[in-house]
Amino acid sequence: MTTRTGADPRPLTGEPVSLDLLNTRWVQDGEPVDLFAGAAGLSRVEGLAVWLESVGLADRSRADAATLVHLLTAREALARAVADPADASARALLDAVLEHGRIRITFTAEGAGECAEFADPTWGPAWIAVRGHLELLGTAPDRIRVCASPTCRLHFHDVSRDGTRRWCSTACGDHAEGPRHNARTRER
To answer: 143: pLDDT confidence band, cut at 50, 70 and 90?
Structure first.
């Protein structure tokens, strides 16, 4: 069953797929929210359908309970691996997800290509998210960040020129820095 729903309710979208998966949990008005657990009045499967659509996998994946279970496994493993890259059990979980797919090298008009293959397609989105994280680790592991705002838990890939971005968005930065700026202004 593929369910298509309205707009994505998350405050930050468009990050690399592994971080986008982590951003299916966020804080809103001081309360934790989970896209896969009833956010914005969506059912769990509808939340999955919104995420699949958002990351461009809706046409290749089904929004069903099995896909959701596999994706939740990948999300938990990714969260643990980002929080502590030395966590061996998180790496083992990520490896277990990767066991469910493979890359087949193909010939294309442009030269070599790649095609992801899965014995069980319900593992596809989870596998793609974990593989995407491996690609991030291979190119810019020091640019995988968690928002510096104490009231935010969103992840982002810092693509700023000098690699010093601290906030997931300017709104978060303004919210965190505003009180400090106001205090400095009052002192003058």
So the answer is: very high
- Which class for 48: exposed (0-12), middle (13-18), buried (19 or more C-beta within 10 A)? buried
Structure token digits, residue 125: 């989105």
| CB contact at 8 A, 126 and 74 | yes
Place of tokens 């966590």: 87
Distance CA 186, CA 128 (A): 50
Spatial CB neighbours of 117, under 8 Å, sequence gap ≥ 6: 101, 102, 103, 104
12-23: per-residue pLDDT in tens? 999 999 999 999
SS3 178: helix
Is the confidence at residue 4, as pLDDT, over 50? no
Give the rounded distance of the alpha carbon of 140 from its chain centre. Answer: 16
Nearest to 91 by CA among 99, 35, 69: 99
Give this prediction's pTM: 0.87
